[in-house]
């Protein structure tokens, strides 16, 4: 990533830190430079979008429309209405680009031939193995 940024004229350095240190720096407002966070998605858009809201305690992007839509999405009980709201919030993020999403590491699985009944989930989480048996 540093080499890629260098190619477009950005001089960067890697400063790896524990998540607690990172979260404290974001909460205090002392981490405002470019940073990289890795997380997985559990299949619900809120899991990724919530990081950009004020209640997250680490957001530096300020968009009242986004905040309002996310608040409504988090409090509605209607799944179709919630999905529409999260799509609206995502459209705002795509328009304003408060972050650069560089890449996602693919999931790689290795399964012994004696394992029967296991299939990878669509959300890439291994999860419980209650449907699995051994030959």
Topology:
Blueprint: H1 2-7, H2 19-28, H3 46-49, H4 64-75, H5 79-96, E1 115-116, E2 133-134
Antiparallel strand pairs: 1-2
What would you say about this model in short?
By secondary structure, the protein is mainly α.
Radius of gyration over all CA atoms, rounded: 19 Å
Strand order of the largest sheet: 1-2
The helix count comes to 5
Catalogue the unreliable spans.
none
* Percent of residues in beta strands: under 5%
- Helix content range: 25-40%
The secondary structure category is mainly alpha
**Helix and strand pattern:** HHHHHEE
Shape: extended
Compute the separation of the termini in Å. Answer: 44 Å
Mean pLDDT: 82
How is the biggest beta sheet arranged?
2 strands, antiparallel
Number of strands: 2
Explain what you see.
- With 135 residues, this protein is mostly helical.
- The protein contains 5 helices and 2 strands.
- The chain has helices spanning 2-7, 19-28, 46-49, 64-75, 79-96; strands at 115-116, 133-134.
- It has a two-stranded antiparallel sheet with strand order 1-2.
- It is extended, with a radius of gyration of 19 Å.
- The termini are far apart.
């Amino acid at each position: 990533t540093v080499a890629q940024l260098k190619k477009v004229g950005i001089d960067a350095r890697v400063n790896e830190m524990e998540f607690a240190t990172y979260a404290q720096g974001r909460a205090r407002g002392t981490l405002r430079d470019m940073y990289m966070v890795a997380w997985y998605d559990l299949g619900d858009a809120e899991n990724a979008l919530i990081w950009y809201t004020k209640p997250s305690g680490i957001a530096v992007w300020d968009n009242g429309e986004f905040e309002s839509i996310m608040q409504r999405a988090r409090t509605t009980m209607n799944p179709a209405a919630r999905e529409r709201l999260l799509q609206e919030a995502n459209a705002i993020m795509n328009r304003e680009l408060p972050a650069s999403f560089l890449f996602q590491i693919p999931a790689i699985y290795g399964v012994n031939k004696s394992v029967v009944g296991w299939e990878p989930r669509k959300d890439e989480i291994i999860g419980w193995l209650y449907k699995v048996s051994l030959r």
